[in-house]
Amino acid sequence: MKLLFLILLSGIICSFAQDLNTNGIWVPWSTSQDGVPDHAVVGGKDKNGLMYVIRAEHYHIDEKKNFTESFRGKVVGRYSPDIKFAAVPYFNLEYQKENFEVLTHTNYEWKTTNVHKVFIPGGYDSLNDPIYICRVAHKKFIIPGKIHIGSCWISFDGFEHQYRNWETLVKKNE
Question: What is the residue range of the signal peptide feature (predicted)?
Answer without folding.
Answer: 1-17
